[in-house]
Amino acid sequence: MTKTLRVLVIVSLLACLSLACGCLPGLGILFPDTEPVTEIPATSSPAQIPDTVGEAWDIIFRDYVEKDSLDADELGRGAIKGMVEALDDPYSSYLDPEMYQLSMGDFAGSFEGIGAHVAARDEQIVIISPIPDSPADKAGIRAGDIILEVDGRPTLEMSLTEVVLLIRGTRGTSVRLLVLHEGETEPVEIEIVRAEIELSSVSFEMRGDIALITITHFSARTDAELVPVLETVASEAAAGIILDLRSNPGGTLPAVVSVASHFLTEGIVIDVVDNQGEHTTMSVEHKRLTTDLPLVVLVDEFSASGSEVLAGALQDHGRAIVAGRTTFGKGSVNMLRQLSDGSGIYITTARWLTPDGRLIEGKGIDPDYELDELELEGEAAIQWAIDYLQGGVTGTALLPLL
Fold first, then answer.
1. Architecture of the domain made up of 202-329+364-387
2. pLDDT tens for residues 269-287?
3. Which of 7, 103, 108, 388 could potentially form a cystine with 393 if both were Cys, beta carbons 3.0 to 4.6 Å apart?
4. Which distant-in-sequence residues (6+ apart) come within 8 Å of 158 by Cβ?
């Protein structure tokens, strides 16, 4: 048995007993902020493997009472999972070969599921937002819901990846979720029939002379969807823009940079810092169509990842007023690495900083104006932003952060 495989087993034995499962963002089901699949090179690890690991492996195979039942491959996979869990990183996760193959549908652009975005918070699986008019939305799934069970299976000991892949499935089939709505004490069971999910990301309407642009997530199509909207905004002679990013779970970083580049003419959008401390900045791109109209960005505690990047960049450059609640605080880049047995590891490889060097991970973006619970909901937040842009909001109506 190889020394590498031995180390995996002992880590599993130590970690799986005491640590919560790792997790990963993503239900529609999407895995945002994840780089393309790559295979790891067949080289030795730069870290020295402890001798005790090999000793533990040998003890197990020499002394375990049901020796004939030992499966080296199964123990090895369990050990890999334990090693990833021992990182105690909510966005790193192990996928066995079956789950790895299921996850490939996300990178292929095939989305069949219930239509919701999820993340991990406080060792719980939380709905960030249901996709509008999706099966999840129509069935009563809400932002802030905690998923307790999937088809009767408790999620407490599952990674987010496992939960996502259990809920995904072929359109026309159903899944039962036990969820706890935010602010309630008794969970409810909701049965949802899966469907093919439409992922249009941009919607638009004029509210008098104010343009309301809602971006639900960031995909490869978002920039193309935004351009005709901005053309209409210009033709309507709008006096200002509301950019609604509430419950936006993020998406692809290039799409975020493209969107930012319609509102900024120069400068850094995001600073990516890797595990060597190396900084890679992504700057504003040249766009044929830009706007300098007054801008209010609406965010809430479920605005995550790419939406935090955009809000932070516009805020740091003094381009927009950000109003709402402190955002989710997901500022990590994940890489999907394939292992030789067909399994894979989602591994956090970098952190994001705003142009001014603010850490997003675990911190979120603080709004310039914090809205109370009533102001933040639905139309109330939109009306607040309209009043602000039209000069109808006085200082007494705001809760500025110092």
1. Alpha-Beta Complex (3.90)
2. 999 999 899 999 999 999 9
3. 388
4. 21, 125, 166
